[in-house]
Amino acid sequence: MNTMANKRFQENEKKIQESFISLLNTYDVNQITVRAICEKAKINRSTFYAHYQDVYDLLDRLEIAMNNKIVAQYKGREIDEIFFISDEFFIPFLDFISKNQIFYKACLQKRKSFPISQGFEALWNIVIKPISLKHGITSEDEMMYYFVFFQAGITMVLKRWVDNGCIETPSEISSYIMNCLSRFR
């Protein structure tokens, strides 16, 4: 039986993911079909559907895995509002995005919802709420507008950067973000 713990299942999942990312080098995500992924991975459609519902499910789950890799870079670090809004935080984050820009271009291309769904509580509790309170903002509804602004702004900066091929260095993009956030500190 081919289960998630099964080595063959895991190998097929890796082939599906690698084939998908390879196709992203040539095609926009909305042009990639399950059939194309299966042909590239040399698997049957039923094997694909044992892993994912469709191409967008694959993209979403890969995004979660990639975001977990980003978060792993900061394990063992004390995250506070000063660290979070610093080059020390943004440069490794941006470097990771730059190294995986084809994938993130696809993710940001489909972005239509709240940019950060995972890790929401940490960003809210460590950054947004303390900074808002420091500036006399006590309404959580008002804080949420700042949060949405913060997320959307950074997401669109990332989108522009990857759409342009990550021409600027992570350090340059970090400095642009820091300049935008300087009023927020």
Write the layout of secondary structure elements.
Layout: H1 7-24, H2 34-41, H3 45-51, H4 55-72, H5 81-84, H6 87-99, H7 101-109, H8 120-134, H9 140-163, H10 170-181
Helix pairs in contact: 1-2, 6-10, 7-9, 8-9
Protein name: TetR/AcrR family transcriptional regulator C-terminal domain-containing protein
InterPro entries: Homeodomain-like_sf (IPR009057), HTH-type_Tx_Regulator (IPR050624), HTH_TetR (IPR001647), TetR_C_Firmicutes (IPR039532)
Domain HTH tetR-type: 10-70
Quick synopsis:
Helix content is 69%, strand content 0%.
Describe the structure.
The protein is built from ten helices and no strands. By secondary structure, the protein is mainly alpha-helical. It has two domains: 7-52, Homeodomain-like (Arc Repressor Mutant, subunit A); 59-181. Helix 1 (7-24) crosses helix 2, helix 6 packs across helix 10 and helix 7 packs across helix 9 (140-163). The radius of gyration is 19 Å and the shape is elongated. The N and C termini lie far apart (55 Å). This is TetR/AcrR family transcriptional regulator C-terminal domain-containing protein. Keywords: DNA-binding. Residues 10-70 form the HTH tetR-type domain.
